């Protein structure tokens, strides 16, 4: 463990050259290594270090938000990302990058470099993502959420894991504020939207007390339903894709919460892509249906196999009762619909918006896409608990 | 802090005489003090120590279950009881005993002696409890659950409190096993019932896979819904009563969980008293209705006052939306019904049964009372999520 200092390309190479496994992995002499900064997310510094034999991806926390240095942020987030990788890797295998090395003093992760992969969001915007990618994400959520739940583990083990991630306060605070609260406040300087065209609609969202009560209900679900270890920020920018190889990255927001949160967030990002690029409409609908059916199948597969059975399963044969099984997945779908609504709105008027909207060159189209996201978001949040099937959800989108 | 040793009447007096505040409270000289063992619950040793000026109640953990010394049990449970008292006392005031002193080494609590109070269960069996007592319990649950929830506190504070009590693993394991699992297992030697009269009914409960799936659903609620700090063992033996002064004691099972757990457990104990003593039927129905209406009113009062507002309330006026308010209380009632069903069954065939059943001298009546508890328990567990009003719940009882 080393003392914290923000690394540069050159000090990072010096650091890695002191680690024998990295010498082997990168090969040759450290004088032959190159480090290239590829920081892309909002929070951290990321370098790709390459040598004659291979390459690694290095991610380090900064004591502030990378895109807004005035916003202080504890360094611990990299540790939570590493713990998320360690907790999930037995259940999801190569659906996340391999963790090679963690330095808890530098708050530095060294992991598999997905050099042939592209960020899914960019691939969607460019129209080059292979159809069917959402099946892999559904499977990822199904396997991760089953393996970290009371179905798979004794409650003592679940509590230990839940408590570990409940210290992830700084990033959970970001979600509570940016996703679950700020977009509905009239006085929040972090909100922005296309004015004056969207002024009326935004004002109506920010002054609708019935909507706000429904948002509060989703806050309650986020904060008090701890079903499984979530990714916590599962949008299309947190997925890397190369043909059929789909990887989920950036687990620094990980926490215990409702399974529908991850599903809803991902689903909303597919819907927004379709709003921004209407030629993707059929495609994205197919992906959304696939996301849900693959999640359900992957979760049930583990449940029925009865692998690593916890307290929940001490009584029953795996998935023994069709009525309870239906109820269980319906409740996840309710959450999925509500959180999808929140994601649609916060990515359209909140602090962290998405590149999909700027994919076209036409202002009128962009306004129309954003308007659809806001209206659909409102409907989904309000009707969430009446949406019992994926078809009913697709009807609202 | 002292080294742990099980205290006797005489070593307890020596210990208390070393504490200046206890000298004042008990008065005179320690040679004038008397210590009387009054252990009544299943787990711990309890002494009343009296002096010329006053008296105190002393509760110490043993390294095993008091009524079953072969059952080892970590000492920490007294610490959780003390932390429960500390966490709740600002919200519930004199509805719990005052904590005078905690020795974390001896695992010893010194608290207010409720010398003029009686255990509610005994007062019910004797028919001397004053009508309306359940209003105080409803208020207690309303105030305690509001004050420890996301409505009242920022989520960071809720997580800290939740994590503290999620280390209460030994006692939570007792609940998971004795309440939520064992009674439904055919192979559990801790179960017992009146045989042969109840054999058929017990066998049907222990082999009904549809019931077991519904039990598993309640396990999921217990383990994954952390709405508020619960008492965790709120039966009529955990309540002391003296006229209108009603106190909740024995918080050692405290943990974060669904609010309906405490309500359902208490409600079931009222119902079983009515089954065992049918002349109490009207009275207990009134108490059950009062429990619910008082809970609801007390919770809403704090919500509408907007006292200590947490993240949940950052958007909305207090309790602003009638539809969401209705949904919120319905969901608590669903849980209440399901957990009441579990309590009815476990107190009738599980390890820790209740004295009410032996109040009469007639074996036929006792069998009938126990049969009603088992049948009602099964119905409540299975129909829990369709029970939307307290009247509908009373119809099933």
UniProtKB/TrEMBL annotation, chains A, B:
InterPro entries registered for this protein in UniProt: Aminoglycoside_PTrfase, Kinase-like_dom_sf, Methylthioribose_kinase
Record bears the keyword Kinase: yes
Residue stretches making up the Aminoglycoside phosphotransferase domain: 35-274
Pfam families hit by this protein: APH
Origin: domain of life: Bacteria
PANTHER family hit by this protein: METHYLTHIORIBOSE KINASE
Family in the record: Belongs to the methylthioribose kinase family.
Protein's name according to its UniProt entry: S-methyl-5-thioribose kinase
Gene source species: Asaia spathodeae
Lineage: Bacteria, Pseudomonadati, Pseudomonadota, Alphaproteobacteria, Acetobacterales
């Amino acid at each position: 463990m080393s003392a914290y200092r923000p690394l540069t390309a050159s000090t990072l190479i010096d650091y890695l050259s002191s680690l024998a496994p990295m010498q082997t992995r990168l090969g040759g002499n450290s004088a032959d290594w190159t480090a290239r900064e590829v920081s892309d997310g909002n929070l951290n510094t990321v370098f790709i270090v390459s040598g004659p034999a291979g390459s690694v991806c290095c991610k380090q926390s900064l004591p502030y938000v990378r895109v807004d240095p005035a916003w202080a942020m504890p360094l611990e987030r990299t540790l939570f990302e590493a713990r998320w990788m360690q907790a999930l890797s037995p259940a999801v295998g190569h659906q996340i990058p391999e963790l090679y090395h963690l330095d808890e003093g530098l708050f530095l992760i060294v992991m598999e470099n997905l050099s042939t992969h592209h960020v899914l969001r960019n691939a969607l915007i460019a129209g080059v993502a292979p159809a069917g990618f959402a099946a892999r994400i559904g499977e990822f959520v199904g396997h991760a959420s089953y393996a970290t739940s009371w179905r798979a583990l004794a409650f003592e083990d679940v509590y230990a894991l839940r408590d570990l991630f409940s210290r992830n306060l700084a990033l959970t605070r970001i979600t509570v504020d940016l996703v679950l609260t700020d977009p509905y406040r009239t006085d929040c300087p972090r909100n922005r939207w296309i004015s004056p065209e969207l002024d009326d609609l935004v004002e109506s969202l920010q002054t609708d007390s019935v909507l706000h009560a429904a948002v509060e209900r989703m806050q309650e679900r986020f904060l008090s339903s701890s079903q499984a270890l979530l990714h916590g920020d599962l949008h299309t920018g947190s997925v890397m894709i190369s043909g059929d190889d789909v990887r989920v990255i950036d687990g620094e927001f990980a926490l215990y919460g409702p399974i529908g949160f991850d599903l809803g967030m991902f689903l909303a990002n597919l819907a927004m892509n379709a709003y921004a690029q209407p030629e993707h409409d059929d495609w994205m609908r197919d992906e959304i249906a696939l996301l849900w059916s693959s999640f359900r199948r992957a979760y049930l597969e583990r449940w029925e196999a009865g692998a690593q059975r916890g307290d929940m399963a001490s009584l029953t044969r795996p998935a023994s009762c069709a009525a309870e099984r239906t109820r269980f997945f319906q409740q996840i779908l309710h959450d999925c619909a509500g959180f999808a609504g929140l994601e649609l709105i916060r990515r359209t008027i909140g602090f962290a918006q998405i590149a999909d909207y700027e994919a076209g060159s036409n202002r009128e189209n962009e306004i129309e896409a954003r308007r659809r996201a806001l209206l659909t978001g409102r409907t989904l949040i309000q009707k969430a608990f009446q949406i019992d099937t994926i078809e009913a959800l697709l009807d609202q989108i």
